[in-house]
Amino acid sequence: MGHYAISDLEKLSGIKAHTIRIWEQRYGLLRPVRTATNIRTYCDDDLRRLLNVATLCGRGYRISKIAQLSEKEIAQAVISCNDDVNDYCQQVHSLLAAMLAMDEVQLNCLLNRAIRRLGFEAAIIHVVYPFLQRIGVMWQAGSVNPAHEHLVTHLLRQKMMAATDALSPVPPASAKRWVLFLPEGEMHELALLFMNYALRARGHHVLYLGQNLPIAGLYSVCKSYQPYAVCTVLTAVPERERLQGFVEELRTLCPDALVVLSGPLVQSEALQLPPHTVRLRLITEFLALADEMNVQVAEPA
Length: 301
Known about the structure:
With 301 residues, the protein is an alpha/beta fold. Helix content is 54%, strand content 11%.
């Protein structure tokens, strides 16, 4: 069971800590326990309830009215709010609540609904990425365990692979060519899988090499495949003291390709980028790069 500070609830729900305290004192919406040092801590049930309350408040319910509802009535009211396709915040709250309950059926239903109504790419950008960012906050609070992460990762991986498999094949001879990979020891694949989908959906050809790849083999790959770009996402590896050397080695192994770097590790200001290497901070920057290359391909010679 998770243990949250009030600041964690504020980040996850978007409700100010001052407001949470008022709701707690005036309406008894949450039931925190106090530590030996008299600090409030909240559990998963408190977070789920607050997420549901935030959803209803966002849809115009008065807090005084919500406080009079039973847990069952609150849940039913939240379900009735699911019809607004553009209410991304509510969809994220619902996903978080389903994850905390380890409700795989509800998670799958919510993801499918978002994809069906928004389209795959828009659902990932507007719903899934904010959802994953909230999970990151919960990791920092120590309130998400590996089972939560594995449940979400497994479902999203399924969705991304199914969506990619449904795309029409792209002939490599007539397209920009990309190599996508994660280095040895790197297992955080979701961002790379989405990049794979986005590139293929835009008519690029992708050689997808996946997780945990020793980069020494990239030299022969680039020599035979001759990619326009080589892309990787660095989340957990390499170690920070090895990052500069890794990037320089990658540049050497792929001498004729644009090297595209993404992920938390490459955001370090100390990292010096070699020539013909770009660093992307947001997934929307990657999509913009792919779109720009598409325009270049479409232009007459």
